[in-house]
Amino acid sequence: MNHHSSNSFLVKDDVVYDFLFIGLGAGNSLLLLSLLKHNLLEGKKIAVIEPSQKSNNDKTYCFWSEPNHSMVKDLSPIISHKYESIKASESSVQDIKNSPYFYIRSLDLYKYMLQKTGEADIVIFREEVIDIQSVGNTHSVQTKENAYKASCIFNSSLKPFPETQEKEISIHQSFYGLHIKCEKKVFESQEFSMMDFDVDQDKYTQFIYKLPFNEQEALIELTRFGSEKIDITYAKETLEKTIQLQYGNFEIVADETGCIPMTTRQFLPSETAGIVNTGASANLIKPSTGYAFKSMYLFAEQVAHKIKAGDEPTLHVSNMSTKSRFRFYDRLLLIILLYWPSEGKRIFTHLFNKHSIHTLFAFLDEKTNLVQEIKIFASLPIFPFIKALSVYLKDKNYVRYLIAIATVVTFLFIHHFQPNLGEYFSYLILALGLLIIGIPHGALDHLLLKKKSESILRFVGQYLFIIGLYLICWKLNSVLSLLVFLLFSSFHFGESEWEEPGLRKTNKNSKTLSFFTGASLLVCIIFTHVNESIAIINELFPFQSIYTSKLVYFSPYISIIGFLFLLTELS
Question: What range does the domain containing 149 cover?
Fold first, then answer.
């Protein structure tokens, strides 16, 4: 989504809408309902841009909640089913009357929205949005046909760019479901099945999700957590075989398919006051489960209360805060589902067998305390989470700190009891640091970039051989060896500078210029620290004072020449 500084397209009319909704999915629908409930749209100009007529029931919205919660009361006209018992995985059936599971058809939500918008005289434009532009406090929405102005836009259609962070985890929660009608009465209409793993895993985490509507009808879905989306043909064949085996003959009333992102990647908040990201664009999907409907409702209430309090200038930074430890839990589970997806069945089975569904609902709502969470993780298979933790630490570059802390603690322990042994241990650590980190990181970086497949062990061996050869040359003629070292260093430093931005490929004289660039770097280093450099050279070779004084005198000029060359060549 691009926000431009000037309006370059024709606006349809002079109407400036107070609130303009882009998209009428779950996020914006719940937000619009919340604003209507709180009487915040009276006397305001409101419009919706939604290209789809949405004549099919393509989605299912489910949530758990206390029966008297405002969400249940507000959505009661379209809640088509309520479940008061649950069977999850291999656990026994559990009573959830205190926190029932509610079912809403997407088509019912959409029809309800059409009714409400009609009653409130809210116009719906059947057009597709392609861009948003901002001029001051007014925003223009460009569709393929027209343009519309608004003071505030709720955007759930045009996706903002996700934050570009390295090593974020992303998988799919893809599903295919069949609304079936069986010949016989085979279902308990008040009992739903959340995760039935009695199905082929196909190298992923796969389960059956069952929502009965009466004794003969139910929605039965095959869901996959994994890096690859589920194949519709495969899913349909698997479902039909499973349904036939468990319930006998049936007919297909309808089907539905979809995919929910499960990711740690976050969308950037809107930078423009008056443009509010909603729905998935507001990061309202829980990464580890894909549940979002309740978060969307709570987000809508938060926005409504802000408008009611006159806090409209901060609407664009509205968000549903998540505790950092729950983001950490989500990441660990997603790492497991990405790298070791076959572990999902074992983890979820343990989870449902060891804990009540009320505890798990509270955990998913992020309402548990740390003691409860420790008990939950203590009941799960430990090794998948240890592996996931190692991946997490590596991705966050924390491993080096752990190694450093462990090394220091070990040294202090050894040194306390055996000082001499502690000294030898420190020499060992220095040697390992030189071989594992120092040489590969600091020496010939440009060559390592070109030869990433080269063995580090082989490289270190070659490098140590060169060091030994140089020591022999130093013993034979130290002045000549120092001169060779400075010349080679000049070429190496310069080549590294030219390699990094890719300048070598565009300049035929790059080798010559590399040498002079490196020489200029050395000149800047040596002659801006001329006294220190002379002290070192005097230790190596007796130096006449006349040359020393001249070097000190000319050092500022030599440094300036080197700096000007660098400025010219690398700018």
Answer: 16-66+105-163+267-317
